[in-house]
Structure formats: C-alpha cells, structure tokens
Amino acid sequence: xxxxxxxxxxxxxxxxxxxxxxxxxxxxxxxxxxxxxxxxxxxxxxxxxxxxxxxxxxxxxxxxxxxxxxxxxxxxxxxxxxxxxxxxxxxxxxxxxxxxxxxxxxxxxxxxxxxxxxxxxxxxxxxxxxxxxxxxxxxxxxxxxxxxxxxxxxxxxxxxxxxxxxxxxxxxxxxxxxxxxxxxxxxxxxxxxxxxxxxxxxxxxxxxxxxxxxxxxxxxxxxxxxxxxxxxxxxxxxxxxxxxxxxxxxxxxxxxxxxxxxxx
Length: 264
Ligand SMILES: Nc1ncnc2c1ncn2[C@@H]1O[C@H](COP(=O)(O)OP(=O)(O)OP(=O)(O)O)[C@@H](O)[C@H]1O
Ligand SMILES: [Mg+2]
What we know:
By secondary structure, the protein is of the alpha/beta class. The chain has a domain at 98-173. It contains 10 helices and 10 strands. The strands form 2 sheets. It has a 6-stranded mixed β-sheet, sandwiched between helices. A 4-stranded antiparallel β-sheet has the order 2-1-4-5. Helix 5 (128-141) packs across helix 6 (158-171). The longest helix has 18 residues, at 188-205. The chain is globular and about 55 Å long. The structure holds adenosine-5'-triphosphate and magnesium ion. Adenosine-5'-triphosphate (ATP) is lined by residues 13, 15, 26, 28, 46, 48-54, 214. Magnesium ion is lined by residues 52-53, 180.
C-alpha cells in the first residue's frame, strides 16, 4: 500500500479580474493522481505558478480540495475527526524557502525547537534537563553546535537558519516532510550542504519526502522519482535519471534547458 495517495486532487480558485467581469477560475491543482511510497523522495518540479505550493497545502490540510482526496495509509484525510487530524499534523512537516520568515525572531533556538519537541513529548515540559538534551541532540543532528542553543535566528547565516528550520521540523518526529524550495534562497555553495543533509536525514529516519523546486538540477541527485507539473496537472512522472536523460513532456524539456550548462 502506498504511504500517501492523491486521488483526483483538485483545487480551483476564483479570481476577480474587474468590478463588472465575472470571476475567472484558476485551476491551481487539476485532477492530480499520485501515489507516494514510504521512504521515497518525490521531486515535484514545474514553473512558477503551476500549482506546486497549492498541492502541498492540500496535502498539509491547510486548504480543502475542490474535488478529490488525500489518502494517508489507506485513510482519507477528509474522513478523520478533528482530534485525529491534530495528531496526524505532527506527522507532516514543512520546510520553506525562507527560513528567516518561518522562524520567530524573538525566540531563541532552544525555544523554537523545544516548542516542537513538546508537541510530541508534552511530558518533557516537566523535565528541563531532558528537554535541553533533546534540543541539543536535534541541533547536532542538523550540524549545528549546541553551544549556540541560546542564540536568536538573526545571529545565524542563511544556511544555518535553514538547519534550524530543519531541526524544528524533525523535532515532531515527522513521517512526511514537504520541502518547498528549501535551498532556492541560499548561495550555491551552501545549497549542496543542505541537500546532502536532507538526503542523509531522509535515509537515517526513513522519511517520505516531497521536494518542491523549479530547478531540476536540485532534485536530480536527491529524488527517487520526479513529477513534472504544468498548469495544475502532472504531465510527466518517472525515475529521476530517466526524466533527466529522456524527458517526454515539452515542460520537462524546457526545465532541463533552463539548467546552466556550465556549473562551477
Ligand atoms: N489563495 C489563492 N487565491 C487565488 N489564486 C491562488 C491562490 N493561491 C494560489 N493561487 C493561484 O494558483 C496558481 C498556482 O499557485 P501556486 O502558488 O500553487 O504555484 P507554485 O507552483 O507554487 O508557484 P511558485 O513556483 O511561484 O511558488 C497560481 O496561478 C496562483 O496565482
Ligand atoms: Mg510555490
């Protein structure tokens, strides 16, 4: 059984174009079927506006689908009770492009990560030493020195901040991570460090991962399979290498041609 299944998943938005014209329908996600195995990394690629973030928000249950459903281990998310949804929420985590925007500037690294740890282990709230040890462990797991535990996000570089965001995501012991352009805001030299970190964590923890990017070269070595999205639809799905070597859809060909041929 697939870990996560998207069945006919659809999200339409109404967009007002003028005062006297009828609203236009934006088919942000349009009848998407996709089956994701446990422990798999799916690269979701496509040009800006093709619906990648909307698809991830549907999976995260931050948006209700217009049609279709998200099925987790054989269970439709729409059929879960609010209590079950609350519990499941810890199993799904997101990592965003801009870690500075997703971290609270007034919270230390300790508070940021501890808050997430407590959603999984509320009992640790009574055991400060154990909580601190757990936060330190998570920091080390993402390559941050735990001596910085009392520092604030602005005291770190972009790459380090993304490591903090990753540690916070891991703190809830998730099963699925959706990373939406997690390295796009970082210097190229830092990008590969963060990609390697995500790859290692995914293997060590057997995470299922959806890795969203407009840059095919970023997912080439990290994804098992690549799904190419265009205008709300998945127009190509295949093993990572085969999409690279033999792209079938015009959209994948355009994305491939957008990769600079000379890379330093
Ligand atoms: N809340 C909303 N209301 C109306 N339209 C929306 C809303 N959210 C997204 N859209 C539209 O849906 C389409 C898909 O947007 P989405 O953000 O999912 O694309 P994306 O692939 O993530 O793009 P990017 O690569 O730029 O992040 C776009 O045309 C967008 O304008
Ligand atoms: Mg997006």
